[in-house]
Automatic annotation (TrEMBL):
PANTHER family: EAMA DOMAIN-CONTAINING PROTEIN (PTHR32322:SF2), INNER MEMBRANE TRANSPORTER (PTHR32322). Belongs to the EamA transporter family. The keyword Transmembrane helix applies. It comes from the Bacteria. The keyword Transmembrane applies. One of its GO terms (cellular component) is membrane. Residues 144-274 form the EamA domain. The chain crosses the membrane at residues 36-57, 69-87, 93-113, 120-137, 143-163, 175-197, 203-222, 234-254. This is DMT family transporter. It comes from Hymenobacter aquaticus. It is found in: Membrane. Keywords: Membrane, Transmembrane, Transmembrane helix. It is a multi-pass membrane protein.
Length: 290
């Protein structure tokens, strides 16, 4: 029988601690990039996370039906590609901006089919945020890093859709545990090709374990606990705070400084995300997104 990941915290502190945990994990990841690169860091995180979840959840692969395999395999591939692209962005642009741009994916998904006039307020706010981030003079921010962040957001939107489909045929914890096994497939070849695993040391393995703990295992456990008692709309609004948390984490832990227009961009997209949650039938956020 599969075992659950359990922590005992009220739902609001659990979600806030989850958000803080994810951003601490991103800061650890950024510190590993010089030694392992984005692909090597993503492979290490996903590999250790998959191992931990497999031990704790103990999914019985032999008992999965063909329908469950058809759902969980693309779900896992989308998870891996999303994390890889996000780390590629994080290697080139500040943490706060990477998370802000990535949020455009689920926000766009939430606004698909919007018909009421005030729904388009959120579109305008999101567009203003993008415009404030864009380096119109061709200088400053890394254009490839911006592209990677937006691509990660697109994968996040796909991941949410596939996650909803997978949740109908496979319970949440088993879906993530099995999906994480396939998440390594789109990432591992780049990590191997980059030769980053030759640089692994006990110290780097320890940091990789902390990365998996803060970025996957701990937030996954906390979010699952919170969702048992917290309304999903409240959960979604709280998750909209992630770009602000990322910007603050980048400032405190990585000494990254955002300009005033970039802070305004973060604020615009946070307001757009929270507003879309309140006024549209927003798809449920999938766990383990970053």
């Amino acid at each position: 029988m599969s075992r659950s990941l359990r922590l005992s915290l009220p739902p609001l502190p659990a979600v806030l601690l989850s958000i803080a945990s994810v951003q601490c994990g991103a800061a650890i990841a950024k510190g590993l990039f010089p030694m392992l690169g984005a692909a090597g860091t993503a492979s290490l995180r996903i590999g250790i996370s998959a191992l931990v979840l497999a031990v704790v959840v103990r999914p019985r692969l032999a008992r999965l039906t063909p329908a469950q395999w058809r759902a969980v395999v693309p779900y896992g591939l989308a998870l891996g590609l999303m994390n890889f692209l996000f780390y590629c962005a994080l290697a080139r642009i500040p943490l706060g901006l990477a998370v802000t741009l990535e949020f455009i994916g689920p926000l766009s998904l939430a606004l698909v089919g919007a018909r009421r006039w005030f729904d388009f307020v959120w579109v305008v706010l999101a567009a203003a945020g993008i415009a404030l981030i864009a380096p119109w003079n061709g200088q400053g921010l890394d254009l490839l890093g911006l592209f990677f962040a937006v691509a990660a957001g697109a994968c996040w939107a796909v991941y949410i859709v596939l996650g909803q489909r997978t949740a109908t045929v496979l319970p949440g914890q088993r879906a993530v545990a099995v999906g994480m096994l396939f998440a390594a497939l789109p990432v591992l070849p780049f990590g191997v090709a980059g030769g980053s695993f030759h640089a692994l040391t006990p110290h780097l393995l320890l940091l990789g374990s902390l990365l998996a703990l803060f970025s996957s295992v701990l937030p996954f456990s906390l979010e699952m606990q919170a969702l048992r008692t917290m309304p999903t709309r409240t959960f979604s609004i709280l998750m909209s705070l992630e770009p602000v948390a990322a910007a603050l984490s980048g400032w405190l832990l990585l000494h990254e400084r955002l300009t005033l227009p970039q802070w305004l961009a973060v604020g615009c997209i946070v307001l757009a995300s929270a507003g879309a949650t309140l006024t549209t039938s927003r798809p449920e956020p999938a766990l383990g997104a970053e």
